[in-house]
Automatic annotation (TrEMBL):
<dbReference type="GO" id="GO:0003824">
    <property type="term" value="F:catalytic activity"/>
</dbReference>
<keyword id="KW-0547">Nucleotide-binding</keyword>
<dbReference type="InterPro" id="IPR013815">
    <property type="entry name" value="ATP_grasp_subdomain_1"/>
</dbReference>
<keyword id="KW-0067">ATP-binding</keyword>
<protein>
    <recommendedName>
        <fullName>ATP-grasp domain-containing protein</fullName>
    </recommendedName>
</protein>
<feature type="domain" description="ATP-grasp">
    <location>
        <begin position="85"/>
        <end position="124"/>
    </location>
</feature>
<dbReference type="GO" id="GO:0046872">
    <property type="term" value="F:metal ion binding"/>
</dbReference>
<dbReference type="GO" id="GO:0005524">
    <property type="term" value="F:ATP binding"/>
</dbReference>
<dbReference type="InterPro" id="IPR011761">
    <property type="entry name" value="ATP-grasp"/>
</dbReference>
Length: 390
C-alpha cells in the first residue's frame, strides 16, 4: 500500500462492500478490548479486560460483522429464504409472492413469472452471509431465461474467495456440465422467483426483539431516510417477526409498504427480506449519529471512543509464508496509515511476525483488519493476535 490514507472514511471507501460491516464492528470493539484474535473470513474474538478477581472473561465473537449473540442455527435458518418465508406465513405475516425453481426447471419458472406478472426478482434460495445476490427489474421472458441460466454459471474460486459465506450450505452434489463443457451449479440448487412490488422500501432494525431504528426510501433512490412517523402497527409487526425468528438478537427486516405512517393492513405491505446483517455501512455517512448508536449496541464495549484518539498495541501475525516480503510490506502499509511501527520479531521458520505500533485508533484497526482478511496485500496470515497497551 503506497497511497497515503489519512482517514477512516477513506480506508472504508477503498474496501469491498462485503468487508465494511466487519471493519465497522472491529473499529468499535478493538480499542475497548484487552486482547483481540482475528482469523480469516472475518472471524473475530474480542476479550475484555479481566475482572478484579483475575478471571479472564469469555470472548465476544463476530463473523463478518454479525454478533455471536445471533445463534448460528437461527442465522442459517434466516439464510434459507424458503424456510423463513414458510415460518412467517404460518404465523400470519404477509410475505411477497414467490416460488423456487431448481436447475432442472424447463419452463416452470417462465410460466410462474407470467402468472405473477413482470417485473420479477431472481435470487438464490440460500442467501449469502455477506451480501444479497439478487437481480431486480426483470421485465420479459427472454431476459428471465437468460438470467436464470447466467446466475447458475459456476464462478471461479467462488467457494474459497472472501465473498463466500463462512457458514454457507455444503454442496453435496456434482457440478452440472452442459453439452459445451460449461460448468454450472448443481441442478439441485434452487433460485427464488418473486414478484417485484411497487411502493416504498421500509427497513426495520431489530435489537433484542425491539425496533431500534427505521429507514425508508423509494426503490430508485440510493439514500435511506429516517422514518419520522412509524405507525405502531409496524413496530408490532417487527416484534412479531423477531419473535418468530427466535435466536436472532439482531435482525434486519425489509418490507415494501405503501406508507410507513399508515397502519399495516392486508394489501399495503409485504416482507421481502430478512437478514442477520444490519448493513450499517450503508448508513455510515448519511446518518452518523444513529449509525454509531447501532454499532455501539451491536459491538458492545465502551461508547464514545474517538477513532482519531491515539492507540498503542502489539500484534503477532502467524502463518506468514514470506517474512522478508512481509517486513517491507508491513512497514510501507503502516506508514501509509500514519502509524509508528516497530518490528520486534520475524521468524521465517515458524512464519511468526511480531510488531508494536502507535497511532490513530482507526489506523490500528484498519491495519490489523486488512491483514487478517488479505485486502489488497500479498500476505494473508492464519491469525492476527492483538494485545492493547494501556
Amino acid at each position: 500500500m503506497d497511497v497515503r490514507i489519512d482517514s477512516f472514511g477513506a480506508l472504508l471507501d477503498s474496501l469491498p462492500s462485503i468487508t465494511k460491516e466487519g471493519l465497522l464492528i472491529h473499529a468499535q470493539r478493538l480499542p475497548a478490548s484487552a486482547r483481540t484474535l482475528l482469523l480469516p473470513r472475518q472471524l473475530a474474538y474480542y476479550y475484555d479486560h479481566p475482572a478484579r478477581d483475575g478471571e479472564i472473561p469469555q470472548p465476544t465473537g463476530f463473523v463478518c460483522g454479525v454478533s455471536g449473540r445471533n445463534l448460528l442455527p437461527a442465522v442459517n435458518f434466516c439464510q434459507d429464504i424458503r424456510a423463513w418465508r414458510a415460518r412467517l406465513e404460518r404465523h400470519g405475516i404477509k410475505v411477497v409472492s414467490a416460488a423456487s425453481f431448481s436447475g432442472r426447471s424447463q419452463r416452470d419458472h417462465l410460466r410462474y413469472a407470467k402468472k405473477l406478472g413482470y417485473p420479477v426478482v431472481l435470487k438464490p434460495v440460500i442467501r449469502n452471509t455477506l451480501y444479497e445476490e439478487f437481480i431486480t427489474d426483470i421485465k420479459s421472458e427472454d431476459e428471465l431465461e437468460f438470467l436464470f441460466r447466467k446466475s447458475r454459471e459456476l464462478k471461479k474460486n467462488k467457494a474459497s474467495d472472501l465473498a463466500a459465506s463462512p457458514y454457507a450450505m455444503t454442496r453435496l452434489s456434482e457440478d452440472h456440465v452442459d453439452e459445451h463443457g460449461r460448468h454450472y451449479l448443481p441442478l439441485s440448487v434452487r433460485y427464488m422467483l418473486e414478484k417485484q412490488l411497487e411502493g416504498r422500501q421500509l427497513r426495520l432494525m431489530m435489537a433484542e426483539g425491539q425496533v431500534v431504528a427505521a429507514f425508508h426510501k423509494h426503490p430508485q433512490d440510493e439514500l435511506w431516510q429516517i422514518v419520522e412517523t412509524l405507525h405502531e402497527s409496524y413496530r408490532v409487526l417487527g416484534e412479531k417477526v423477531a419473535g418468530v425468528m427466535q435466536g436472532m438478537a439482531y435482525l434486519r427486516i425489509d418490507l415494501i409498504v405503501d406508507d410507513p405512517s399508515i397502519e399495516a393492513q392486508e394489501g399495503n405491505h409485504a416482507v421481502i427480506a430478512l437478514s442477520e446483517h444490519l448493513k450499517c455501512y450503508k448508513l455510515y455517512y448519511d446518518h452518523p449519529a444513529l449509525t454509531q448508536q447501532l454499532l455501539e449496541r451491536v459491538a458492545g464495549g465502551s461508547p464514545g471512543r474517538s477513532l482519531d484518539a491515539p492507540m498503542r498495541f502489539a500484534a503477532v501475525l502467524a502463518g506468514i509464508s514470506h517474512g522478508q516480503r512481509l517486513e517491507s510490506e508491513l512497514m510501507r502499509t503502516g506508514r501509509a496509515m500514519g502509524l509508528d511501527l516497530t518490528l520486534e520479531e520475524l521468524d521465517e521458520v515458524t512464519g511468526r511476525v511480531r510488531f508494536q505500533a502507535v497511532g490513530p485508533a482507526w489506523a490500528g484497526c484498519a491495519l490489523t483488519w486488512v491483514y487478517a482478511n488479505g485486502l489488497g496485500i500479498e500476505e494473508v496470515p492464519t491469525s492476527v493476535d492483538i494485545q492493547m497497551d494501556g
